[in-house]
Write a structure and sequence with these properties.
By secondary structure, the chain is an alpha/beta fold. It is 34% helix and 16% strand. It has a 7-stranded mixed sheet, sandwiched between helices. A two-stranded antiparallel ribbon has the order 2-5.
Length: 328
């Protein structure tokens, strides 16, 4: 057979295979320049969503991703997360993740295991659905840098420089982590093609610890959030960095004041509506994604009852919001 004909047939077969492969099963990294997204916050952003949970008795808990997958309607939303046999796929090589929290750090391809218990495929956070949404619309390799530590407030722990006083240690660690990762891309991700990078977006999902401090932290939340956006842009040298602010979803619990939670949510929304942030900062409502305790794996309302569907929907909403701010 003619060699040119063989080459043409091979190209045709490869094209058909790529066209029929779901986006969620993409095996190879894409070309650069690398699109970098930073996801930051506290324990909710760490990722408390349950992939599966089978207690004694052998019945899957409600509200896990595994139970969602069995639902004939909801399961369709996870089509790119499963393989041909109906099991969870091995992740996406066209999305890399670097995750740091108080338990350590982990890096690699996008897959389960970047939740609060690093490495355990039982947990995931907003990065999963966010990464799928962003990568599906991008022809560039994606890197998600997630910096989230449980129980940290904006008033002190993440306090931005422009708010005055001592700069928050976790603000400094967040910026330091981003710079450290970007300076060592080839070591962390050997298939990185050294074509450069673009810091493309920042997502902030946070609020619990400030809301638990209604006398001091709550009145300052709007100011501190405004300064956070401006200071992150300044320190990362991206003046118009697209920013998504996720609505604080709590509270559930008698130890905190509900009115303070309302004040935090109001401040978050008002900050994103400031004229100087028009077209570059977006607020994402999340309360409608929270499911009832009876339909969830646990009673931890402050972690959205660890409901997998909730974390899937919130991550997806963050990704869709970011898409409106970031050119393809």
């Amino acid at each position: 057979m003619n060699s040119n004909l063989i080459k043409q047939m091979a190209i045709l077969v490869m094209s058909v295979a790529m066209a029929s492969t779901p986006a969620g099963l993409m095996a190879q990294p894409k070309k650069g320049p690398l699109k970098v997204y930073i996801l930051a916050g506290q324990s909710n952003m760490q990722g408390q969503g349950m992939v599966t949970g089978v207690p004694e008795g052998g019945v899957e808990r409600p509200g896990t991703l595994a139970s969602m997958l069995k639902d004939p309607v909801k399961g369709k939303q996870l089509k790119n997360w499963v393989d041909a046999k109906g099991g969870w796929n091995e992740g996406r090589e066209d999305v890399w993740v670097y995750d740091v929290n108080e338990f350590g750090n982990r890096h690699g391809k996008l897959e389960f295991g970047y939740g609060w218990s690093l490495g355990s495929r039982m947990w995931f956070g907003p990065e999963m659905a966010f990464g799928h949404v962003i990568a599906d619309q991008s022809d560039k390799q994606v890197l998600i840098i997630k910096t989230a530590w449980g129980g940290r407030d904006l008033y002190k722990d993440f306090r931005p420089p422009s708010s005055g006083g001592e700069v928050g240690p976790f603000y400094k660690e967040m910026i330091g982590t981003v710079n450290k990762v970007l300076a060592d891309l080839k070591t962390l991700y050997p298939s990185y093609d050294s074509s450069g990078f673009q810091i493309a977006g920042f997502v902030w999902w946070h609020g619990w610890n400030d809301f638990c401090n209604p006398q001091t932290a709550v009145p300052e939340y709007g100011k501190n959030l405004t300064n956070l956006i401006n200071d992150v842009r300044k320190d990362l040298k991206v003046p118009k960095l697209p920013v998504v602010i996720g609505e604080f979803t709590g509270p559930w619990g008698a130890d905190c004041n509900e009115s303070a939670a309302v004040a935090i949510r109001k401040a978050q929304k008002e900050v994103t509506a400031k004229p100087e942030f028009a077209g570059t900062v977006k607020f994402v409502e999340t309360h409608d994604f929270v499911r009832a305790e009876k339909d969830s794996p646990t009673k931890e309302g402050y972690h959205e009852f660890k409901n997998g569907e909730t974390y899937f929907l919130i991550g997806e909403a963050f990704g869709k919001a970011m898409k409106t701010l970031v050119p393809r």
